[in-house]
Every structure is written in C-alpha cells, then in structure tokens.
Amino acid sequence: MRRILSIVTICAGVGVWSTGVALHAQERQNKFQQLYQEHRTPTVYRTASGAPGHEYWQQRADYDMTIALDDATQRVTGEETITYHNNSPDTLSYLWVQLDQNMRAPDSDTFTTRTSSISNRMSFRGLEQLHYDFDGGFKLEHVRDAAGRDLHTVTNNTMMRVDLPEPLAPGGSYSFAITWWYNINDRIKLGGRSGYEYFEGDDNYVYTIAQFYPRMAVYNEVEGWQHKQFLGSGEFTLPFGDYRVSLTVPSDHVVAATGVLQNPEQVLTPEQLARLETARTAERPVIVVSEAEARAREPNRATTTRTWTFAAENVRDFGFATSRKFIWDALGVPFGDRIVMAMSFYPKEANPLWEQYSTRAVAHTLRVYSRYTFDYPYPVAQSIHTDNIGMEYPMICFNGRRPEADGTYSDQVKYGLISVVIHEVGHNFFPMIVNSDERQWTWMDEGLNSFLQYLTEQEWERGYPSRRGPAENIVDYMKGDRRRISPIMTNSDSVWQLGPNAYSKPTTALNILRETVMGRELFDFAFKEYARRWMFKHPTPEDFFRTMEDASAVDLDWFWRGWFYTTDTVDVSLDSVEWFQVDTKDPDLEKPFRRQQSEQRPTDISSQRNLEAIERTLVEQDESLRDFYNAYDEFAVQDLDRRDYEKYLATLDQGDRDLLRPDYHYYEMTFSNVGGLITPLILELEYEDGSTKTVRIPAEIWRRDTERVSKVFPSTQKLTRVTLDPNRETADVDLTNNVWPAHAVPTRFQLFKQSQDQENPMQRERRNRELGKETSSGQP
Ligand SMILES: [Zn+2]
User: Fold this and answer.
1) What pTM does this model have?
2) How far is the CA of 202 from the centre of ligand 1 (A)?
3) What CA–CA distance (Å, rounded) separates 546 from 53?
4) Residue 225 half-sphere exposure toward CB, CA atoms < 13 A
5) Fewer beta carbons within 10 angstroms: which end of the chain, N or C?
C-alpha cells in the first residue's frame, strides 16, 4: 500500500509532449482506425448502411434438366437447358459456366498443384493418391443454342466461356443447352463432396450427387464474373433460379432431391403416399419407406427405370441422392400456415441412430435458425446419410456418422451426427439463401453457420458438447504457429487449417460480439437484420460488417480489424495492482502509520552484520557527541501538529473533508495488451469480507493507448483478489497473467516406469526360438 502524499488540482503539462512520443502514439492507434481503406466505397448497389442499394441487381439462371443415372457403370448423363437473365446494366458478349467436375480430370490443377512428399510412414490411401488416374472430368457432347446450332466455347480448366452469337443486352435473356456425362467418383476411395459409396455386403450403391452439372457462374458489380478456378476448398458461388429436373434411375431406387417431387403418384405406392400425408401433421417422424422394405429390395436388380421429377423455385443449386437401400422418414414442421417437410434418407447401416435423430435434428434446426434469421422459406429440408462427410445443397444435405455393425455407437458418433445435421441443414440459411460468395469467403457461410449451429446445439440439450463456440475452444489455434495462421479475411483456397480459420474463429468472434461486446439484444437484432436484408441476395463481407454496426449503434471497426483482418491474439496481462490511501493529514493517524512503515522497512545486510561486528560506535563511546537529533522522535505527535490539522480542516468544505476519510482504498491496476487484439476488460474483484463484484469495461478503454492502460478502482473494502476474464469469455490465450495476487494452479502429471512394452531384439529372438520349438514339437 502507498499513501497518496497530497491531493492537488491536476494541471496537465501538454507542452512537454515530444514529436517522437506523438508519432509512436499515432502508430499505436491503428487498431482503432476506421476501416475506410479496407472497405469498398458504398454505391447505389450496396449502401454504407450495409443494405442492398436502390439499384441493386443480380443475375438469374433457370435450369431445365433431364438426368439419367447408370447404376451398372456409375455414370451420370445429362441434358440441360439454361436460361440466363441479364438483370445487370451491362451488355454481355460471353457467359461463364462452371465445370466443377473437371477438378476430377487427371490433369486438373487440383492435382498438379497439390504438394506431396514421401515419408518413412505412409498410409495406403496417401500412396494411392500419388497414383491418381481416375477420369472424373466432364465429357461435353454439345453446347448449342435454342435453335440447335453449336456455340463457340473455350474451356479453361473448371471454367467454360460460352461466346454469344449476339451480345446479351441489359434486361435480355438467353437460352442454351449442354449435353454431358461423367464417371462418378468412389467417394470412399477418392474422397469428395459428391460421389457414391459401395456397400460390399449387399453389392449396392448409395449415390449422393452434387455440383454434377455445368452451372452458371455469378456475374455482379463486385467481382465481375466470379470465375476463380475450383481447386477444391473454395466452394461455390451461384446465382438463383428455378429448376425443373427429371431424374431417371433404376425403378427400385428411392430418390431425394432439391425441391418438391412433382409426380409422387407415379413413383410411390399408395401406402407410401398415405404415410407421407400422415407425417405432415405428426408429432414424431413417420416412416415412409421402412427398413424391412429397403432390406427386401437390396438383393434384387430392377431391369426397368423410373423417372422422378422435381421442381424447385429460387434456389442456387440442385443436388440429389438415390439408392435401392434407402429407408425414408418424414415429419411436418409448421411455419404459420405452411408445413415444411423435414425428411431423412438412409440405408440400414445407419440404424438405429438415424431413425431416432436425423429428422428430429432437421426439424430442430429449421425452428431455431428461423428464430434468429427468417422463417425457412423452402417446402422441404432433407438429410441424406453418408459414412463420414457433411455437405450442403439447397433443401438437401449429405451427413456422416454411422453406428457400429452391432448397432452400438459412441457418444462422439451420436453428437457428431446431431451436430453435422444441424450444421448442414443450417447451411440452407447461409449460404443457400443468404447467398454469399463462397469461392472467395469461406467464413461468410461456414463462420455464420457454425455460430448458429452452436446456438442450436445448446438448445438441443443442456451441456451439449459443442465443438465450436465457447471462447476457450479457439485458444489453441490462435496461439499456434503464426506462419500457418491467416487472417479470416483470406481467400478460401489459400488458407492453412480451414476449419479453425473459417469455422471456429469466426464462430467464437461472433459469440464474443454477442455475449461480451454488444450484448444479446443488440446483436440478435442486427444479425437478424443482416439475414433479412440479404435473404435471396448476394452479400459481401462489408455488407455484413456495416449492417451489424448500422442496426446497433456500436462502432465495431476495431473488432473487425482485429478479429477478421489480423492474426493477433487476445492476451491481456494484469501487470500490477497498487494499493493507495489518502494522506488524511490527521497526525494521530499519519504519524503512527509512518512509524510502522519505518519500523517495517528491512535493514540492509551491512547494518545487520555491523550490529555485532562494531562493538561500540564512537557516539556510544563518547556521550558528548550527542545533540537534539540523537533523541528526536519524528513520529511523536505534538499538540502543534493537532492545531495545524484543525486549521487545515477549516479550509475544506464538507465534500472535500469526506474524501479524507481513512477507510477509502484505491487500487490502481495496470494492464498490458500482450496479444495485440483489442478486447473488453472483465474483472472479478474479491474483497476481504468475501464479497465479489464483476466490472465490465468496454474495449474502448484501449482507444488512446492500445498497449498499456491503467484504471483506479475505489472501494471501502480491502481487495484480496482480482481475476481478469473470470468467465473465460474473451479467448485470452494466457491465463497465468490474469490473476492478482499470482498463484500457482495445480496440474496432475503422470508418473511411469521405463516403458516395458517394447520388445528388444534379444527378447524377440528368444520368442522366435520358442516358436521354433513349438512348431517342431509335432502338434497334430
Ligand atoms: Zn459447412
């Protein structure tokens, strides 16, 4: 503790500020600099508030497709007519079409640019990939105009330019047709979001097929054509449109696809139709195609085909799944007077887990996400079983997690399934409806979606083991090797560790915004406003950043800058806590206090030793050397001291006199920002009487000095303990500098004897000899 020597009126000495200090201060303020350089100038298409502007436009592409699956050769063939609507103010002389399957061509850049090396220990799968020779690229047979004339095209890897015979004027539409086929990849051996899984036990396939047809690229006022090549990580950027798709498959297959089945009477039995109708108003999922029915189909091979027709309005893509192994269940989820059908399709291998959880997780997701955004606008949402992936398309997604063959499963498998269903169904909201540019910004769909996934999981079950969301879950990544960490605002294909970068870190950032920076009320309103504004449109990162500020009156530029544009970490250190009390000037209090301080001051080592080493000092030997000062007690209280004190008090008014009370304690705390990321300060103060108080200080405390700040906390109680970030809400990567007074936290470590498990060569040789004896002992 220190006594404040006197209370004086503060008069700042501004004139002594040197140029060097001023410059340094300016550099430090960059973390609070507004994002004018980083953010595009607002336009008539996108406003400064983050909303679509009054001249916002977007292109549209409608598809009419006839698709056939060959179950014997695992091939898809298709004929599609694309009608492209030019809503832009620009005249277009060519169109760009995405040929995503070309990523699977043997000479694709995905494989030629993939780095590789040989190590002492390699997996069979790893070695097999070095021998990659599967030809999964598109085989285009025709690209023709509406009159059947061939169009001139140029293919550059995964992008195809279609040169228009006449330029397409603003407001015009153009129809053209593409005929194609490709070999479906074995998803288990070769990987991929789309493909087939072969089930050896019953010699059947489950097909989960997507990005399987030539798709229009997005043209907009931000990127022009978004035709950045598909390398595998950066997902898809697609315009909205209406789809009508006929899928021809073996007649014993069950098909699920984006959209609403148009000819149920032709492909379903009357019984299945009746079950589907029951499911609309049921309380629990209703089985439409049972496991017994699926099992009965498995050994047979239909020789005929059947065509399932689907229609979908205002979607950005189309995916489907087909198999004779499919079990199918369904449950209606009401939204106002609409009923959305939540459905699941899975083989027997997925049970008993899937029939219990999949469809209910779909329904739960639709309800919770709708509350945070807008009512789910599509008529169906479907979850399709895969072994281990998770991938999303409009109204349909492919989800992994499978129980053991004996029907048991671990809790990781159970929660893994519920989480992946929530996540992939949740993608209907981001990016299927709030249609961001995935090729460029993974975080805009994965981050926003993983954040809502976290909120949805926590409503499934108290204590749900969410992987992403709580701030402490991102700490290991953020304090990791900086060479491998990119800012969130990095292109999807250039990121190391895409999971933590584009999923977990933005999830945590948004949760910190919601819980710590903005508060739930302001955050939830602004987040919903963003979703509402950009529903069925193409937002950019700025549109999100600006809307969150626009709807909340919270300046978040410092937050976006730190969390999205840098790799800084949150690490605040509570450097010191200093204890002050006012010098009351009351001699009866102050002089004994000083005496105590003086007596407690440690004597130095020489003085201690001299007590014995110097038998007698000169003054001790000769009394005549003593005078007034040898007997003077500076801490003795004199009457004159008391009189002076009374006089001093008389000069003060009652308010000033109250401030001289001896029971006020002042604690000056100094904090330094070690990690660099700006963060609010949350402090838990614990007092001598055991009471605690939480103080929440907004991040703006750092606005003048982003490296070091101090703050004084007055109290009438003595402080015994201070904890910074007591609820672990800021993602602080080092907790050892968060407590005062410092204290050691016990950690258990494992003790073991020298490993005895490993066999040495002599032991092995001994076993070898024993084996020889056994073999020659002539056992029949
Ligand atoms: Zn995702």
Assistant:
1) 0.90
2) 32
3) 13
4) 18
5) C
